[in-house]
Amino acid sequence: MEDTGDTGDAGKSSAPKTRDTRDTRDTTDTADATGTAGPGRRLGTLDVVTPMPGTVAPLSAVPDPLFAAGTVGPGMAVVPDPGVEYVTVCAPVEGVVTRLMPHLFLILTDEGLPVLVHIGIDTAQLDGQGYSLHVEQGRRVQVGERITTYAPLSIGRLGFDPIVSVVMMQQDGGVEEGLMPGEPSEPGDVLFRF
């Protein structure tokens, strides 16, 4: 599989397609003394990009009640394109990989915001089968850097849903959609803003 990194600009408008779904009751900068954001705290707007090609879906479409209800945090999901044997999942934000398992990774941004990428539903049961990691835990990564490659067709044949959830972990409020549910996505497209 070749990753050219070219996402192309053909047919894309220069104006972002967005819909604000954030809770606007409190959007003040309330960083604690460590400079990190705690639950419900926002430091500003963070662009979270699509980590892989596919079709955008709302978290409510994720067949896991914790993700679907927003219990883990607000975000969006990406369904891999049908018929694709291998998909490379890239960093949706810049930061440090603070947790890394074959089926998930957590990146802590410089602003202290944890961004979780969870690959598939109940896929921890696979013990890494169908996944190949490209980085190590503790590494600083750039937006678009390869983190893992997985096999959505194989995972699907084993009875697991290959949907990928991208979540602002343990944060309150909503996200401003960059891409609308049902739209195709390419790595580097703004998936949502937080």
UniProtKB/TrEMBL annotation:
Bias (Low complexity): 30-42
Basic and acidic residues bias locations: 17-28
Transmembrane segments: none
Localization in the cell: Cytoplasm
Domain PTS EIIA type-1: 64-170
Keywords: Kinase, Phosphotransferase system, Sugar transport, Transferase, Transport
Cellular-component GO terms for this entry: cytoplasm
A GO molecular-function descriptor: kinase activity
Keyword presence, Ribosomal protein: no
Region (Disordered): 1-47
BP GO annotations: phosphoenolpyruvate-dependent sugar phosphotransferase system
Keyword Iron: no
UniProt-listed PANTHER family: PTS SYSTEM GLUCOSE-SPECIFIC EIIA COMPONENT
Name listed for the protein in its UniProt record: PTS EIIA type-1 domain-containing protein
